[in-house]
Amino acid sequence: MRAADGSGELPVPTYELFSSTEVLGRMAMQRMLAGLSTRRYPVGLEPVGQRVEQSARSTSKSAVSRRFVAATETALGELLAAPLGELDLVALMIDGVHFGDHLCVVALGIGIDGTKHPLGLAEGSTENTSVVTDLLTRLRERGLDTTRPIFVGIDGGKALRSTLRFSGQITFRGACPPPSKLG
Fold first, then answer.
1. N or C: which end of the chain has fewer CB within 10 A?
2. Is residue 7 included in any domain, yes or no?
3. pLDDT at 44 (0 to 100)
């Protein structure tokens, strides 16, 4: 839209909102996390008519995938940088999770009210001491209170147990036995 005095163009807030990649990225991420695949993404869109659908951009599999990757990278970056000093945690769960050929050691905090807080993750080939130590160090640097006792739930992995006991980073109180030992 041009200014009435001819001085240039004026921003149109509604156009800026609907052309914003942030909104499109957030919508793509919500739909993908709800289980809609990139292949079926157009099915989850509002009906807009055949003429608009034929000229539509940014709904191809690759465009949606790029938006999803960008949105999840942003969300993960925010998660891994969030300060932890205000959390009142009573438990810390640490475990390795396999994603294809990759392994991530994940830390999940549980607050006094039962709220679960994803705290961080570290990628490694196994749940080894250096990966777990790196994860705990980064959590402490982000403000996790490691001076007071906290229950730590682990699956019984030797590297996790020995790292927690001897790292001095967490006041270790106990660990869950592996499910096979529970009966």
1. C
2. no
3. 62
